[in-house]
Write a structure and sequence with these properties.
The chain has a domain of 141 residues: endopeptidase fold (from Nostoc punctiforme) (Alpha-Beta Complex), CATH 3.90.1720. The protein is built from three helices and eight strands; from the N terminus they run ββαααββββββ. It has an eight-stranded mixed beta sheet. A hairpin with a 4-residue loop joins β5 and β6. The longest helix is centred in the middle third of the chain and has 16 residues. The radius of gyration is 16 Å and the shape is globular. The N terminus and C terminus are likely disordered.
């Protein structure tokens, strides 16, 4: 498996947003001893989503708000913070995909410790077994094999399923590699998820509605 590193150093930039792109693309968290994987950004090729033209097509914002409405209470908080950072403020967190997602969880009130986050699934990234789709909830921080970029490790926030049978999902993904651009909502094959991190709150919290 070929790995490469992306750099890390915080920064932020805000700019007005006129159009948001949905693209088809392209360290590990331990609740006791946080670790980070080295992972590069992927060369993404943006594809604009259908505009809301009044004929039933959903805009990206509609899609995100619908996903939030179906999430658990803690998942909804994570997705809302992610949306505000990405779409409203177009923030840049200089560093890797891990750094951006970590910043989202921190700002939502779920710091990198036992009381802030819990690991609900962990396995071997090389050999599995990999997470069942039924374990994955909106707002989860997923670590998975990025099949669209040389099979390297990647981590991002799960938003919703695009094709459950095909294990394709809409993810909030950050490229890293010192890019001066915010994260984007991209479709990924997440058939090989080897770790799931979730806010450590309300173990009995259930999905507001089915995915």
């Amino acid at each position: 498996m070929t790995l490469a590193a992306c750099s890390s150093a915080p920064a932020r930039m805000a700019a007005p947003v006129s159009a948001i792109e949905l693209a088809s693309p392209e360290k590990a968290f331990n609740s006791e001893e946080p670790a980070r994987l080295d992972e590069p950004a992927s060369p993404e090729k943006p594809i604009r989503p259908p505009a809301d033209d009044g004929d039933g097509n959903e805009s990206l914002l509609d899609t995100l708000l619908a996903a939030e409405s179906r999430a658990t209470r803690v998942g909804r908080k994570v997705l809302a913070t992610a949306r505000e950072m990405t779409l409203d403020r177009r923030e840049i967190v200089r560093g890797s995909c891990w750094d951006y997602t970590n910043a989202i969880y921190n700002r939502t009130g779920y710091p990198n410790n036992k009381t802030g986050r819990k690991t609900v699934f962990r396995s071997s990234k090389e050999n599995g077994p990999y997470a069942d789709a039924a374990l994955i909830q909106p707002g989860d921080w997923l670590y998975y094999i990025n099949h669209s970029y040389n099979g390297i490790e990647h981590s991002a926030i799960f938003v919703k399923w695009i094709n459950l049978d095909g294990r394709t999902a809409l993810m909030l993904s950050y490229g890293g590699e010192k890019r001066r651009e915010p994260a984007r909502y991209l479709s990924y094959d997440i058939s090989h998820v080897y770790q799931i991190v979730r806010p450590a709150e309300d173990g009995e919290d259930q999905l507001a509605s089915s995915r």
